[in-house]
Specification:
By secondary structure, this protein is an alpha/beta fold. Helix content is 40%, strand content 23%. It has a six-stranded parallel beta sheet with strand order 3-2-1-4-5-6, with helices on both faces. Strands 7, 8, 9, 10, 11 and 12 form a six-stranded mixed beta sheet that branches.
Length: 290
Amino acid sequence: MRIGIVGSGAIGTDLLVKLARHETLDLAGIAGIDASSPGLARGRELGATTTARGLEALLELEPEIGVVLDATSAAAHSLHAGLLAARSIACIDLTPAALGPAVVPDVNLGAHLDAGEVNLVTCGAQATVPIVAAVAAVCDVPYAEIVSTVAARSAGPGTRANIDEFTTTTARSLESIGGAARGKALIVLNPADPPITMRNAVHLRLGAHRRDEVLAAIAAAVGRVQRFVPGYRLASPPALDDDRITVIVTVEGAGDHLPPYAGNLDIMTAAAVRVCEVVVRARTEQAVRR
């Protein structure tokens, strides 16, 4: 099953580099709309099929594509979704369109393997929902609040134009995926120079709990995320005080295309590749059974 990328900007180019070196995923090509974009140039360097005529042209050039990662915009994805659905091509959506179910790898992806497309929510959700879900698995979480601080230089026009959507969507994911009864999310664009790496503070109110179970659940969640985002780390030991806990995680990017400080963008591309692995495996197994 071959993999296609649509969107030849920074996110699409980072996906391109990750997929090109992947041991099992079969990269087919990348589509954009700007023939001079660095992403298409990098694709040619890596031997991938490239086109500046958009998704439909890529599918004509590479008819065996079975999964597409969409790194364009919400408006563009709305057009791509129908095209992909009509051809029964799975879609992993990195845009704010949110047409498919929201997923966070290794938290709820297994519940949506039959979906035609899935949405990766936000970088804040990818960084914090695993922590909230891990704690919610061992005790009640009446309230979850997260603060994602990212380098201003890593926040492009799309991020800045969708700040309200970021806070609302991330907060809902703390509830619907993370299991908190109520969630709140904030984002801070830090202008420091040199740029800071992504930092996420997770503040939880806890129901009746056992301290050792909560701490073990957090450690296990960090380990699971680190399997596909090696730069995901606890900044310090969790601070647990009676019915409250604060967990701070930082995300350093792999530096594949985006700078290492852009952990907020890298965690999205790494999550997309992780989802791609699971989706390809599931679809391949289904095909074998048929």
